[in-house]
Amino acid sequence: MIIIVQVVLVLAVVLAAFALMSGGSNARHLAIRRILLLIFAAAAVFSIFFPEILSAVASFLGIGRGTDLVLYALIICFFVYMATTYQRFRSMEISITKLSRRLALDESILPSAHADNSTGHGSAGTTQHGA
To answer: Max alpha carbon distance in the chain (Å)?
Structure first.
């Protein structure tokens, strides 16, 4: 029975990784994360009030103790957290890169404007003093 639990846990990790890496940070992913968080919170509260049921579920799955089952669940949750955090930071990096490029282009001096400034033919940034 333990091999079945191990296979299910590995499949859960792989599926979570593909699901979180495949899409962006859209409303669907946010809804899935919130639903999973609510399920996890409900399971945590339930296991606090009824620890013997958690131990019974663990022994039914072939896991020695309820605490081991909680540890496995936390490992999966941590992996999902790492994947979503990586995805969020990657998205922010892309946004910052695009903004930096746009800012560099907006603040760059055009070659024709630079040539006008060097000849003294009055551009917006130069002042000419009369004699």
So the answer is: 98
Residue 108: exposure state from Cβ atoms within 10 A (0-12, 13-18, ≥19): exposed
Amino acid at 120: G
pTM of the model: 0.53
Q: How many helices (H) and strands (E) does the chain have?
A: 5, 0
In this predicted model, which residue has the larger pLDDT, 117 or 91? 91
> What would you report as the CA-atom Rg of the chain, rounded to the nearest whole angstrom?
29
Among 8, 85, 13, 72, residue whose Cα is nearest residue 43: 72
Say how far apart CA 74 and CA 76 lie, in whole Å: 5
